């Protein structure tokens, strides 16, 4: 209890003193409601009363937002306002891999694909580390370290047996690496002290894509937890030869952000932006297979989880088998764990999904699927 107390009170202090009203739009947290002097159900039971009031009362300095706005948000439990999607759009990210969102000419500058005599492909990527402020909740900016300017980094997707070549340039201010999960030689691991790529330096990672499954990549420079939580991670997907059955495929990376550097997360999300999929539900089609590539990179918390309402899914842990190990509606993953989840929505309508840790959900990790009948797909 005491660590949660401090996490919430620090979010309030940070929001009130330096980030201004915008940070307070993350009103879902009961502690924030308390900060605005609103009646917050269950507050006393949580022991947050004193903490909420102490953070600055109902008139944060620099606030430009009327208190009434908070009140409204307090009921909906989600962020108020929208994060700009100009630089990073979580909806686009869901269905993007190998830079498929870029127009052909631009795509070639970062991704090239060549057929090899045996039918496999050489896939060549240009990844760079760069420091960048990213917006993780309306008006709340996080000083991230990124791959190619985005968090999560670009999704890398290959077929088992392909050759991967990653030209990595460190344009950031700290030493970084790329550590890929999967089979490879020691010198390609990006984890030992002499693997560190210094600012301004380059390194080429080259290895074959194996085994098939859902993997990830992340920086492995020290201190590790700092480099990961700052944003240096991404999805690394290896398809089996022959592929998987056709499906609407979604890349979902569960992450968190420690906005005040107290080794505890203040904001949680899938694909970085708090509550994005509440504002913009993930559109799926009734009866059509959906495949979720779910990865947990959340730092500081032992576990993260996904619970999908009114729907059950098949679980393929690490995606390394084509036979599901489990049918459930809730899956929990340790940091670095991942699972492929397959289902098909039976009924049209909106279906919530969120961390089953309620606190994470309130702090941003909550979204909606919107399932529509196939013949109504084109209508909004
Ligand atoms: Cu790093």
Number of structural units classed as domains: 3
Mean pLDDT: 83
- The fraction of residues assigned to DSSP E strands is 25-35%
Largest sheet: 6 strands, mixed
CATH topology of the largest domain: Immunoglobulin-like
- What's the CATH H-level homologous superfamily of the largest domain? Cupredoxins -  blue copper proteins
Strands of the widest sheet, in order across it, are 11-10-13-18-15-16
What Rg do the Cα atoms give?
Answer: 21 Å
Helix amount, in percent?
Answer: 10-25%
CATH top level class name of the largest domain: Mainly Beta
Attached small molecules: copper (II) ion
Gap between N and C termini, in Å? 44 Å
DSSP strand count: 20
Low-confidence parts: 1-6, 8-75
CATH architectural category of the largest domain: Sandwich
Number of helical runs?
11
Name the overall outline.
globular
**Sheet/helix structural class:** alpha+beta
